Amino acid sequence: MSLYARLAGKGPSGFGYGSTAEEVTEGLSLAGKTILVTGCNSGLGHEALRVLTKRGARVVGTARTLDKAKAACATVQGDTIPLACELADPASVRACVAAVKAAGLRLDAIICNAGIMALPKLQQAHGYELQFFTNHIGHFILVTGLLDQLTDDGRVVMLSSAAHNMAPKGGIQFDNLSGATGYRDWTQYGQSKMANLLFAKELARRFAGTKKTANAVHPGVIQTNLGRHMNPIAQFFFGLSDKIALKSIPQGAATEVYVAVHPAAAGISGAYFADCNVAKSRADADDAALARKLWQVSEEIVAKLP
Ligand SMILES: NC(=O)c1ccc[n+]([C@@H]2O[C@H](COP(=O)([O-])OP(=O)(O)OC[C@H]3O[C@@H](n4cnc5c(N)ncnc54)[C@H](OP(=O)(O)O)[C@@H]3O)[C@@H](O)[C@H]2O)c1
Fold first, then answer.
1. pTM of the predicted model, to two decimals?
2. Alpha-carbon radius of gyration of the chain
3. Cα 114 to averaged position of ligand 1 atoms, centre (Å)
4. Structure confidence by residue, pLDDT tens digits, 138-173
C-alpha cells in the first residue's frame, strides 16, 4: 500500500482512499446479480470482473475483441459472459447490445469502465476525436441501447476522472469535436471525461422518479495500461510515484465497484464519487443545459453513424 493510502482516512461511507474492491464488497452476496463491465481485460475493469464474480455476480465482460473478453473471463472462477464491444466501432457496440438483448439478460449494473487517455497526436474515428468517440460516444450507444435491459433499480456507473477538470472552458468544444481545429492530448482527454460526467448527470435526471441510478466516478490515479501513450520520462516518474502516492489496482477498482453494488449507494444518483464517497466536480459538470445539449448532439452524431 502506498504511503498516502496508509495515511489517508475514510469518508462518510466508511471507505476511503485506501479501500480495495474486495473490502467494499466484504460480506456482500451478489448471487443473482448480472453486471456488465466494459474493458474487462485490463487494469480496473479486470479487477472489477475478478471481485464481482468472487462475490457471486454474473459478469458480462466486454473487451475490444471476443478473444480478449474470453481470455479475461477465463482468468476468474465465477459466472461470466464474454462479449466483444469495440467502442470506436458503432457496429460492434450495437452487436454487443443485440447480444445482451438476445440472451434476455437483465442488468443490475452497467460499469462503463473502458477508456483511452492522452493520445499524443490527434486520432479520429468516424471524423470525431478518438478519446471523445471511444470514451463517450461508444458508451453512449451502449448504455442508451441497453436501457430497457436495466432492472428496476439498475445502476449505471460512468468512469470519469479528476482529469475532467482539464476539459476546455465551457466543458465541451461542440465546434471542435473532430479535434481538427485544435488538439491537446490532456485537454481532449479531459473533455471526454467531462462528457462521461455530464452523461451520468443527464441520465440521472432522466431516471428521476424511478429507482434506477446513474453516477460518475474518479477511480484515483493508478498505474495501469492507461499510461501507455505517456512519454517514457513521464512513465518513469509515474512509476516512482506509484510507490509513494498512487493507488494500487485493487484500490482503484473500489469506487466503481462500490457505486455499482453497495447497498448504501442505492439511493444516490447524479453524483460524482471519488474514494468511495460523494465528491465535488467542476462547476460546469452541474450545468443541466450543457448536459442536455451533449445528449442531443450525441444522438445526432449516433444517428449519422454507419
Ligand atoms: N488509471 C488511472 O489512473 C485512471 C484515472 C482516472 C480515470 N481512469 C479511468 O478508468 C478507466 C479504466 O482505466 P484503466 O486505468 O484500467 O486503464 P487500462 O488498463 O488501459 O484499461 C482500459 C480498458 O479499456 C479498453 N479499451 C480501450 N479502448 C477501447 C475501445 N476502443 N473499445 C473497447 N475497449 C477499449 C482497454 O482494452 P485494450 O486492453 O484492448 O486496449 C482496456 O480493457 C478508464 O475509463 C480511465 O479513463 C483511470
1. 0.96
2. 18
3. 4
4. 999 999 999 999 999 999 999 999 999 999 999 999
